[in-house]
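USER: Please consider what follows.
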Amino acid sequence: MKVAILDDYQNVALEMADWSPVAERAEITVFSDHVSDADELVRRLEPFDVVFVMRERTPLPAEILQRLPRLRMIASTGPFNASIDTEAAGRLGIHIGTTGGSASSTVELTWALILATARNLVGESMSVHGGGWQTSVGQELEGKVLGVLGVGRIGSRVARIGAAFGMRVIAWSPNLTRTTAEAAGAEFVDRDTLFRTADVVTIHLRLSERSRGLVGADEFAAMKPTALLVNTSRGPIVDEDALVSAMRDGRIAGAGLDVFDVEPLPAQHPLRTLPGVVATPHIGYVADRPYRIFFRDAVAAITDWLQSVQ
């Protein structure tokens, strides 16, 4: 048996868990680079019986799975992975194993991006590193309005922290109820009110056909010119072209982004250089505790499957 570990960007996969139960039964190959070309990806994965994917770094749609007749198992971090065609995997007899995870790291990064964007922390730090000093006037959050799109296991915690900062917290999502919003310490409002009123809009929705492109030109037009947008959920929830246009035209004051339509973000993408954008490379889940949970549970899932077939 051959096992491939994909997209180990930090070269830590074999350090974060004891892979010996897998190594006793299979040959393990670790890839630290990312392959986006479909043909190249198929060539890379053809020799493997098991593929371990980190979140959605390498999507596995039906057109890829159909070209991998040897593939018999996919291990994926987290309880679900929208970038894997699970129906196609089932038809092809490919078993899918999942893992536990932790929401805390994404909650923490959300607030890091809110604070970094509100206080221009990147620009001020670069000024100090370059020999300069103060360059901007930041926004104080106390008394401002935090608009939370989605009050699930992450959004609800983000909302409670907003209240601790002394912010008025409002919330909306397609399925949100007044009771659920109030349980998180948020005031339930309609969609238009949220975008029109919020000083900070933070996104915590699952990507679906209903949420894709949910934040677009109309929403940016409704927002205050001093407002900030933060997205640690999934890139396609925001219309990226509309966001770039809104930032260039000064329709909003800033954006803190951890997720993008295409990842890794293309080298010449305007979001890499636009003033007012704090961009991080999808690191909401990239922290010590969730990584250890991911890799520990992946080892267990792969080992159980290998034992069942050998």
User: Anything to note?
Assistant: The two ends are 9 Å apart (CA to CA). Residues 288-309 form the longest helix (22 residues).
